[in-house]
Design goal:
Layout: E1 3-8, E2 23-26, H1 32-44, E3 48-51, H2 54-59, E4 64-68, H3 75-83, E5 90-94, H4 99-107, E6 112-117, H5 122-135, E7 139-144, E8 158-162, H6 163-169
Parallel strand pairs: 1-2, 1-8, 2-3, 3-4, 4-5, 5-6, 6-7, 7-8
Amino acid sequence: MQNFIIKITKPDDSLLNDNNLQCFILSSALDDKFIGSFANKAKSLDKLVLSDDVDTCLKYNLDGVVLDLSKSENIAVEYKQKTSGLKKKFIGVICRNRRHEAMIVSECEPDFVIFKAWKDGWEKVKDLTDWYVEFFLIQSAIMAAEDGVDTSLFKTDFVIVNQEQYQQRLP
């Protein structure tokens, strides 16, 4: 069974009580008060909270960050710059859906590498993630970039979805 990471994009903490969920990514666009409250509740439940922004991660002493380096022209340099103050924090990195970029990101040694999948072209992303899982020890995640992506077909360690996408899966 895949482990889910939920990207929180709306001020709603109801999924914190879901025992199947252990990790959340808070959008830095959320209200400061909500971020602080969510982070405190999650910590009291022994759940991990990441941010999509380094400053937010540090401001609220979150467990880590997800960096989007999918548009970076110099991944190694940008990774080093953005993570220099993140000692002992979990780091996930979104990379382009190409083998070369996946290898470069992996050389930076994040905790996990994230690939994005859309409804159109998801098969190529699945081939990429299958290759990655076979050759690399660094954990991987698939992020549904839109509704309609069947993430259950991917062999990644984690599946990243937003609140609505996760709730659509519930019986």
